[in-house]
From TrEMBL:
Family of the protein in this entry: Belongs to the protein-tyrosine phosphatase family. Non-receptor class subfamily.
Source domain of life: Eukaryota
Species in which this protein is naturally found: Serpula lacrymans var. lacrymans (strain S7.9)
Record Pfam families: Y_phosphatase
MF annotations from Gene Ontology: protein tyrosine phosphatase activity
Segments forming domain Tyrosine-protein phosphatase: 55-407
InterPro entries: Prot-tyrosine_phosphatase-like, Protein-Tyr_Phosphatase, PTP_cat, Tyr_Pase_cat, Tyr_Pase_dom
Protein's name in the database: Phosphatases II
Lineage of source species: Eukaryota, Fungi, Dikarya, Basidiomycota, Agaricomycotina
Residues in Tyrosine specific protein phosphatases domain copies: 286-398
Gene3D superfamilies noted in UniProt: Protein tyrosine phosphatase superfamily (3.90.190.10)
CDD domains given in the database record: PTPc
Length: 414
């Protein structure tokens, strides 16, 4: 799908770098869409071979036996597709890759006082439909996940209550990543959209109120209490920002006081499912992007901070379309200095920071040479390597190019 004629060129090109002018042309975007779709079809065929209900013969029509075995192992979703874990998937066709899935440690795991449960790093931890994803160009880690279901709210909150360990990468082989704790949750979907449920509430709507959240069936972890401390509406960012506390009630924690953590929940209210924000809402999305980045770096509510910019947990409904788009935009804004407009330079041909060496090489090989100067296509393809279907819709890919153009065109006024 191409942008409407003239849409990408409606702003002044004086401030827009040459690579972006070329990459945001209708012909290039069409080529990018075709290439990315073809590569995702190959991944999807490989994923199908690891679903219990799908016969491998259906995939062998597309892949040779040797290629099928190699790709299916790399793109396996066998854990999420296991019948024992289907309860944890909001949608029946969206599961995390085995190699990038977030594993939530045992009954409670490591808590705010620093004590560590030995099950935290265990591969036998609780199932959670979430994926570790790292920005290709910005370098930041995220947890991309679906909107919690009633039966998955406990494991979702448990991932906030305990410290988390980012995956080992090539650049951390000699220095293991320090434990971190999620303190910002971004939600890109309303609970109801067009009359259909897209997310379930897991915290109350009035400050001072609490929900008691029980664990999933078969889990012996204690129930959790989540309390809304405060909430405010930020009109410029179309955002409802809430501060919440999640804790183990004293009677269940075997402690003299309740163990708890505080996190910030940020709901962006102007992004429809299977689509993109309206033209008049794109400025609010730019504002929201910067607000999320600033909020996650704010350590004022933390007693002790070992990571000044910890991973952010982000979800829409399925955790792929809007979620992938938001991560991709954030990565490119971070890499090109677009979060801090005063430092922006239109003359930069490439991102300020580049981390491709820290991510595994795709078994599909690199993108063709004509996409070497298109970081948007590279970023989206990299995200799809880490969670299926990221940046799900054609118009969402176009949105990424548009917002980059818009951000550069606005720099003269900053």
């Amino acid at each position: 799908m191409s942008p409407p004629a003239g849409e990408m060129g409606s702003t002044s090109t004086n401030n827009i770098p040459r690579w972006l002018q070329l990459a945001s042309s209708a012909d290039h975007i069409d080529s990018s869409l075709s290439l990315l779709q073809a590569r995702e079809r190959t991944r999807n065929n490989a994923r199908k071979a690891t679903r219990p209900q799908v016969l491998p013969s259906r995939v062998r029509q597309v892949l040779s036996p040797s290629a099928s075995n190699e790709l299916s192992k790399y793109y396996s979703i066998s854990v999420g597709a296991n019948p024992d874990n289907l309860w944890g998937n909001r949608y029946s066709n969206i599961e995390p890759y085995d190699r990038t899935r977030v594993i939530v440690g045992g009954a409670v795991g490591a808590l705010a006082d620093g004590s560590v449960n030995s099950t935290v790093a265990s591969l036998d931890g609780r199932y959670f439909n979430g994926s570790w994803v790292r920005e290709l160009f910005g370098g930041k880690w995220w947890i991309a996940t679906q909107a919690p279901l009633p039966q998955t709210s406990h494991v979702f909150l448990s991932a906030l209550l305990q410290p988390i360990h980012r995956p080992m990468t090539l650049d951390s082989a000699t220095s293991p990543p320090i434990p971190s704790r999620v303190r910002t949750v971004v939600q890109l979907t309303q609970n109801f959209e067009s009359g259909r449920r897209k997310a379930d509430a897991y915290f109350p709507s009035k400050p001072g109120q609490s929900f008691i959240v029980p664990p999933e069936r078969g889990c012996t972890a204690p129930s959790l209490q989540v309390t809304l401390l405060e909430s405010r509406t930020l009109k410029e960012s179309r955002c409802i920002q809430s501060k919440l506390k999640v804790s183990i009630p004293i009677l269940q924690s075997n402690q003299d006081r309740a163990q708890s953590v505080i996190f910030t929940h940020m709901l962006y209210a102007a992004w429809p499912d299977h689509g993109v924000p309206e033209e008049e809402d794109k400025e609010s999305l730019l504002s929201f992007l910067r607000l999320v980045d600033e909020t996650n770096k704010n350590t004022s509510s933390q007693d002790a901070v070992s990571d000044p910019d910890p991973p952010i947990m982000v979800n829409c409904s399925a955790g792929i379309g809007r979620t992938g788009s938001f991560v991709a935009i954030s990565s490119l804004f971070r890499a090109f200095g677009l979060f801090n407009m005063s430092s922006l330079s239109a003359s930069l041909p490439r991102p300020l920071i580049k981390y491709p060496h820290t991510l595994p090489q795709s078994p599909l090989g690199p993108l063709p040479k004509e996409f070497e100067d298109d970081p948007v296509a590279q970023e989206v393809d990299s995200l799809r390597e880490q969670r299926p279907g990221m940046v799900q819709r054609e118009e969402q890919l176009v949105l990424i190019y548009e917002l980059l153009v818009q951000a550069y065109s606005r720099r003269g006024a900053c």
